[in-house]
Specification:
The protein has two helices and seven strands. The protein has about 140 residues and is an alpha+beta fold. A four-stranded mixed sheet has the order 4-1-6-5, with helices on both faces. Strands 3-2-7 form a three-stranded antiparallel sheet, with no helix packed on it. β5 and β6 form a beta hairpin.
Length: about 140
């Protein structure tokens, strides 16, 4: 089975809400909400991929030093296995906006479970809920 490595961000604002992105029409799992990020290219470090993807998809600049490792998800889809390391990010430059047609929404941690999400994202929600608060790095 093919392995796909995807780096994901848990961007948090001062109110401890999490930025979620909706997969745009025409992509697999369109309409579902996910943590921003993207595929790691061959030879690319996951942290570098995440910094790159956040610039490309959200128009923000993130310093690698501001990535705080949080958790990871591992999920077997029918035709591939997804491995997704996740970092918390509380500091960045710029205002996040969907540069690839995706809707964005700031969501309280307790409300994350109300969003339809890809199965691979669900363990991240569980891990966030297990934290009494998200300490800002």
């Amino acid at each position: 089975m093919r392995l796909i490595l995807v780096a994901a961000a848990i961007l948090t604002d001062p109110a401890e809400r999490v930025l979620m992105a909706q997969r745009p029409p025409g992509k697999s799992l369109a309409g579902l909400w996910e943590f921003p990020g993207g595929k790691v290219e061959p030879g690319e470090a996951p942290e570098a991929a995440l910094v790159r993807e956040l610039g490309e998809e959200l128009g923000i600049t993130v310093a690698a030093a501001d990535l705080a490792p949080f958790t990871f998800a591992s999920h077997a889809y029918p035709d591939f296995h997804l491995l997704m390391p996740c970092w918390r990010i509380a500091y960045w430059q710029g205002e996040p906006h969907g540069r690839e047609g995706q809707a964005l929404r700031w969501v309280a941690i307790d409300a994350l479970a109300t969003l339809p999400m890809p199965p691979a994202d669900l363990p991240i929600v569980t891990a966030l809920k297990a934290c009494t608060t998200i300490a800002r790095p």
